[in-house]
């Protein structure tokens, strides 16, 4: 079992790229600077290990994964502290400890999900079965916002189905990626899971390699399009979870006080740095002022600060790039006739990338803060008088990852939800994912599904045997 110090020692080097705490600017450690040759070597190791890994029985691979989940649990506090220091998210609330717990859960559930052979036709004349075979080597390219849990989402189903993996964490959070794979590799056979760290050029090397059979990527739509183009050499299979700008629609029968905390966490989980977070909220004129005030009351009660302070539930933005995006979009809103309810006043001279919790009311639905993904602790609240218009505005973007409807009438909410163009639409919550429930985007938010049986099938080659 690792402490924070021993875990850090196991994954860092004396002379490498420096990684800093986004809350303080303090040096955390140094990581290797891998090259294209290191990527090629990792692919070779994965190829060499794949046949023997696939030759194991399903029960044997499941046993390995369950032991990996146990190893995550045994090292949970060390993992959470490292995650908090590097990513910035607090230990408490739906943050670092929550994420590490999710890593264990999302390891056990794919390991325990049955995927039997399917008899698709048996009519006395024709007999056909559907099997799911390994693809080979999977490339897993992960983001900086949930750097451990999203890695698990990509790695574990791939391993369960007999593939081996080459993973590349975001260059912003390499320690988190190295730490979670180090813990997994404490129980997995050598070569089954390989990790390289570095920037976009290494990711491109993985994508372009004709020895990689499948790419799993979570990140921006812009990068996703480049992956689609670069993967054509060997017609790679792709699962792409790309950008979102999720809309929530409050119906006129909702109870503002009852939904306020759910709305807050739907928008501000991980300090707003979540692909499927609530990023624009449409509220009817009859409830507008009540919803805005109820949300503001909740927001004022949520402490923000350094993640290792046990009282905090909101942290800094992870990097300067994202701080600048949020700052630009809030300035665009405040330069218009929009009203700042709370926030929008960062201390530019203070250490860390802290941006205050911000609610923007009376905003034009065409404002950049509404139409672009802010990916930070900011929520624009748009007033509407006609539900049809609100639905049209919710759908009037090229992305469609998630959405939500908030109402006291579940059946009415379901009718509205069916008209929202998104991969998942929640009712009276937002972003509440479940390892048994498939998840994926619509429109330019990507394609392919993760989680559940659908997620296992997505990292396998379907094969029909007939006769």
From TrEMBL:
Q: Which UniProt keywords apply?
A: Oxidoreductase
Drop me one GO molecular function for this one.
oxidoreductase activity, acting on the aldehyde or oxo group of donors, NAD or NADP as acceptor
Enumerate the CDD domains for this protein. Answer: ALDH_AldA-AAD23400
The record ties this protein, via InterPro entries, to: Ald_DH/histidinol_DH (IPR016161), Ald_DH_C (IPR016163), Ald_DH_CS_CYS (IPR016160), Ald_DH_CS_GLU (IPR029510), Ald_DH_N (IPR016162), Aldehyde_DH_dom (IPR015590), LUC3-like (IPR044086)
Q: Aldehyde dehydrogenase domain: from which residue to which, for each copy? A: 18-463
User: PROSITE patterns, from UniProt?
Assistant: ALDEHYDE_DEHYDR_CYS (PS00070), ALDEHYDE_DEHYDR_GLU (PS00687)
The record's annotation in Pfam families points to:
Aldedh (PF00171)
Residues at the catalytic site: 241
- Cite the Gene3D superfamilies for this sequence: Aldehyde Dehydrogenase, Chain A, domain 1, Aldehyde Dehydrogenase, Chain A, domain 2
Which PANTHER family does the annotation name? ALDEHYDE DEHYDROGENASE-RELATED (PTHR11699)
Q: Which family does it belong to?
A: Belongs to the aldehyde dehydrogenase family.
What is this protein's name?
A: Aldehyde dehydrogenase family protein
Give the source species. Answer: Kocuria coralli
Q: Recall the taxonomic lineage recorded for the source organism.
A: Bacteria, Bacillati, Actinomycetota, Actinomycetes, Micrococcales
